[in-house]
Every structure is written in structure tokens, then in C-alpha cells.
Amino acid sequence: MLSEFSLIDRFFASRARANTRRAALGIGDDCALIAPPVGEMLAISTDMLVEGRHFLPDVDPNALGHKTLAVNLSDLAAMGAAPLGFTLAFSLPKPREDWLAAFSAGLFELADRFGCELIGGDTTAGPLNLCVTVFGSVPQDAALRRDAAQPGDDIWVSGTPGDARAGLGVLRGEWQTHVADAAVFRRALERPEPRIALGLALRGVARAALDVSDGLAGDLLHILERSNVGARIDVDALPRSAALARLPLAVQRQCSLAGGDDYELCFTATPGARDAVEAAAQHAGVPVTRIGTITSLDPADPARAKPGIAWHDGTGAPLNLTLQGFDHFHAD
Amino acid sequence: MLSEFSLIDRFFASRARANTRRAALGIGDDCALIAPPVGEMLAISTDMLVEGRHFLPDVDPNALGHKTLAVNLSDLAAMGAAPLGFTLAFSLPKPREDWLAAFSAGLFELADRFGCELIGGDTTAGPLNLCVTVFGSVPQDAALRRDAAQPGDDIWVSGTPGDARAGLGVLRGEWQTHVADAAVFRRALERPEPRIALGLALRGVARAALDVSDGLAGDLLHILERSNVGARIDVDALPRSAALARLPLAVQRQCSLAGGDDYELCFTATPGARDAVEAAAQHAGVPVTRIGTITSLDPADPARAKPGIAWHDGTGAPLNLTLQGFDHFHAD
After folding, report:
1. Which residues bind ATP (chains A, B) (predicted)?
2. How far, CA to CA in Å, does A1 sit from each of A88, A285, B126, B327?
3. How confident is the model at residue B13 (pLDDT cuts 50, 70, 90)?
């Protein structure tokens, strides 16, 4: 296998060995050595992507390289952390030069754009599996945590969630759309843009935040549970791309609320911070939309005793939504 | 899948959420937040274990849990780093309660022994794949690097390398041995002991170091190449367990020199540090053996122009060894 794995050295290790800007020691030793800037914490997240579950076998390898790192950078964004570096461990059945060239090009294009250096890794033969652990830095008291939402906070979302799920639906033949819209959806699905600049701009502005990987409804619930609060969401306020708005309303809602893989940020902030939030969004070049309010729990009211979401429409009328959870590419 | 994956929450996430000793923020947010002690670096290593390549499908899951973390802790040991925490990402075909209970028990028994906390992770459905990223801390100038060997250094090895490979040979039917020896070999293969205490004791004593995962001959070459030096090894000086010494001499040498999965440390130190090395080993409770010397390269001598190993026997006579590289569990 050694001659085949020298391909991996060519596309990854040789590149990582040159990375000595952030890491005191990178690939080639037993460990990489890094340190966060003085006074800051290291923010760490790990994500594993498996063929057939997180991506289709015929996915464009350049897009896969992008997405493998993007989903991890998105976790840093949701924390308000600045990217430092990452490790990449992967197993693949048989190294193919064209595949590795395209995968590594997509990966490093994104890594370079965010100054995020490959500092270590592992490669082995096996069913295709990609595991990135990413490292960023953030001052401890500036970190955007999930447990910091408070009653009265506005709830915001970046971008236009739902496009990635719409793209999956097109790939699966669940619905049709014309070619230009299909391209918008597919790009959202294959090349999510980690909202690093927005996360950094929201330090000291937002209270709680996370990135939407498994659908807005399910992910927002993580904030509610960790913060022990409820939420009231105006479903008509949800931002939709022009392409998504051309699909049937039920599909729009399904995609916006329960569609995953968008990697937009969902965050809360006090109403007094609205101008600051808008300024942060403008600075980051990412649109943000206010979609609801954090509410307090009421043990005396069964409907509000536990963390949960009350949906309503633009007129304030309650909506009873049945949302199907996002299941990535798997059918079970 | 959610109900099945609640098993994972039970065995892993709930436990990690309680880990707030070292991490300011653990599992349950987008990122974990940690920092090395003031003035130290974070040492980071990642290893991916794949069924059929790194372990057999019928492996004892408790032993697999131990080994999954042990191979990563071993990288910290080789760096002279103190364990802090780890992330665990894994895919598995179908969560089974008994398997997960045994796997997590083996994993956490070792983690607790070294005060190494689970701080994050990811789980997904897919072919069995285990990816750990481990974090330790070490003062930058105390790190045991691979590129620090110098001509004249002694070459040392801990423990009795070869037992793990002997165990694999017994499992594969390559050779037979009696039951007691087979148990020694199998334990070496399935429950390698990361040499953390030795690595820490060798700070300021050893120069270069690494852990032997792919066979002494191949791994030592990494030190030689990174340090741009050669080595002279006395094959008869290699420490062998009593069990290994009962196998044929050719098998002993194959196991000692080219056998992987032992996770012993191989390191260099000046001859003036011999007493200090012995004291460090005694302090750590791990035997160490001097097996050779680092030599300088000689561009004028084709045999010594490039980093490489000159083998000789106890009388000083050169040996011409043909070593088969270690291939874990794979046959190609």
C-alpha cells in the first residue's frame, strides 16, 4: 500500500509539513503542538462524515473536500471562535489520484480562505470515512454558548435556511424545479459557507448561538433545553431564498424548519442589541432575520412547562406544525 | 435511529457532560473549550481505527475501547505530554447495548487512569470506524521531538517489543505457542499500555522519541530521517519477553524489529544521561534497554549517505536483515 499512500503524502502531508505559522510542530511528529493566543481558550469540535449518510457516493470530490472542513468551521463560527487549524483522519477504499487531487483542492481552498492550517492526521484503508477535528480560539467570556439565552431575547437566523434540504429533495426526486433554482439548491447543499465572520462579529453582541446542521426546529431546541427557556417563532418571518419561495408552501416550511445541512447561525440577542446585530451582519456581509422571541417557562402551564417552540404565522395565529426530522441522506 | 442513539448518550455524552474539571465547556455545545496550563503547548494527535485493518471483527469490545484510546495516549507519551482530554468520533452499523457498554467501560477505565476527559464527539451510522483526537500539554522546550537525535546518542527502547506481533501471529496461525505464552502475547496485542509516566520522566533527559506503532525498524527510521542521522543497532541487545524468547530466532527478530502495535517508546539520549535514563525508567516502573547508537551520515560512503540502520549482532558482526513491514491486520 505504501506506494499508493505516497499519493496521500503528496496531497496532504507535504502541505501540512509546511504549516509552521500557527503550529510550533505540525505533521511528521507524534503530536502537533499548538497554543491559543494568550488569554484565549482553544475551541475544539469534531465531525465524522460517512459515505451514504452525509454524502452520496457520486458526490463531486472537490465539493466534498469543501464540505468536510466547512461543517467543522461552522462549529467554530457558532462559538464565535477564530479558526487556527485542523486534523484530518480518513479511511478510503483505494487512493485514486484524481479523486484525492480534487478532494484536497476543495479542502485547502476553504482552509486557506480562513487561515486554518492542517496540523496532523491519519490515513488508512477502509470504507470511505472523513473525520476532521478543528481548532479555533476565543476569549472564554466572549464564547457564544448554547446555554446563554434569556427570556425576552430576540431569535435571529442568518441567510436563507432550507436551500440545502431543497437541493436534497431535487436530488432525491421528491420535487422538481427549474434548472437555475436547482443549481442554487445544489450549491447550498454541497458548498455550505461557514459563517466565521458573522460569528466573530457577534462576540459581545449575541447571547446564545449554534449552527443549524440538523434543521432549525431541532437545533433551536438545543438552545432552549440548555438555557431552560421556550421560544415563539413567526413561521412567516423565516427568510426564504427566491428559489425556495417558488416551491409549494408546505415544502418551503418543511425545508426551512426541518431541513438540515444549511450551516447558518441561529442566535439570540437582547432587543436593545438590534442595531448592533444588524451592524455585525453588515460587517460580515451576511443577511440576518429576526424570527421570534425567547420566552420563559411556566410550570403551571402544561404547554409552556418544558423547553419547546410555539409556532405562529404572521398574524400571530398559532400553527400546529408536524415536522419531520432531518435525516441527512439516510432513509431509515 | 434516535432511540438507538440514546444508548450512545447514555454511555458517552452524559458522562462527558460531567467533565468540567479540565474543560471550561464540554459536550453539548458546538465546541469544547480548553486551554493548556500557562506557558505550555497543547499536544494533539489523531488516530483512526478501522475494523478488519486495526482490529478483528470479533475483538473483545472492552479491549477495543482500551486500545482505541491507548494508541492515542501513546502519541502523547512519545511527546512527553501529560494527558488532558480527547474527542471520540465513531460510526457503527447498529448500536448494541452490550457492545457499547463493554467498549465504553474499556475506554473510560483507561481514560480515568490517566485523568484524560472525554470533551466532545460525534456518532453516526456507518461501517465500524473509531477516531480519537487526544489532547495533552507539554512545555514547548520539553517536548520529545523526532528531529532532535544527534550522532553519538544512545538508542533506547522500553518494554519488550514484539509481543503484540507474536500475538497476531498466534491469532493468524502463523506459529503456535503454549497457552500461557499465547495469553501474554494476546494481552500485549489487545491492551497496550501507553508509556505516559515514562514520557513525562524523560522530559529533559531524552533527546528524540517516538512510539513504536508500525515496527521498531520502520519507526526508528522516522527519527533518523527527521534528524538526518544514521543508526547502528545491536540486534542481540533487543529485549525479548520470556514468551517471545521461546519462539524460533527468526520469528523473534521478525516480531521485535518489524512487529507493530507494541506502543513502546524508542528514544535517544546522550551517553552522559545513562544514569538519568535508568532513574526515569525506574521512576516510571518501565524497563528500558540500550540497543544502539546514533551515527552521523557520510556523503562519501554510499552505505552511510542516507538515514538508515546498520544491523549487527552481539559480536559486532554486520547482519543483513530482510524485514517485512508491519501491515496490521491486512493481508495486502
Report:
1. 121-122, 146, 213
2. 19, 46, 24, 9
3. confident
* Residue A320 pLDDT level (bands cut at 50, 70, 90): confident
Q: What is the pLDDT of residues B267-297, one digit of tens each?
A: 999 999 999 999 999 999 999 999 999 999 9
**A273-294 pLDDT tens trace:** 999 999 999 999 999 999 999 9
- For residue B120, CA distances in Å to A87, A133, A134 come to 15, 10, 12
Q: Taking the CA atoms of chain B, what radius of gyration do you get in angstroms?
A: 21
CB B217 within 8 A of CB B322: no
Question: Which residue from B24, B75, B123 is facing A31, i.e. has the nearest CB?
Answer: B75
- Contact between A16 and A121 (Cβ < 8 Å): yes
Among the partner-chain residues A125, A226, A332, the one whose CB lies closest to the CB of B53 is A125
Biggest CA–CA distance in chain B, Å, is 68
Which CATH class for the A154-312 domain?
alpha beta
Closest CA to A175 of A237, A243, A127, A274: A243
State how far residue B38 is from chain A, nearest Cα, in angstroms: 9
Tell me how far apart the alpha carbons of residues A229 and B309 are, in angstroms, rounded to a whole number: 65
CB B191 within 8 A of CB B67: yes
How many pairs of residues across A and B have Cβ atoms under 8 Å apart? 205
Chain A residue whose CA is closest to B134: A31
CB burial class (10 A; 0-12, 13-18, 19+) of residue A272?
exposed
Upper half-sphere CA count for residue B158 (Cβ side, 13 Å):
33
Domain locations along chain A: 2-142, 154-312
Q: Which residues 6+ apart lie within 8 Å of A316 measured at CB? A: none
Q: Please give the average per-residue pLDDT across A24-34, as a whole number.
A: 77
All residues of chain A having their beta carbon less than 8 Å from the beta carbon of residue B25 are 143, 145
**pLDDT at position A24:** 61
B2-142 under CATH 3.30.70.2470, yes or no? no
Q: Is the per-residue pLDDT at B224 higher than 90?
A: yes
Which residue of chain A comes nearest to B71, CA vs CA? A30
Q: How confident is the model at residue B323 (pLDDT cuts 50, 70, 90)?
A: low
Q: Which residues 129-168 on chain B approach chain A with CB closer than 8 angstroms?
A: 129, 131, 133, 135-136, 138, 140, 143, 145-147
Distance set, CA B54 to CA A91, A201, B209, B233, B326 (Å): 12, 44, 23, 28, 11
3-state secondary structure of A84: strand
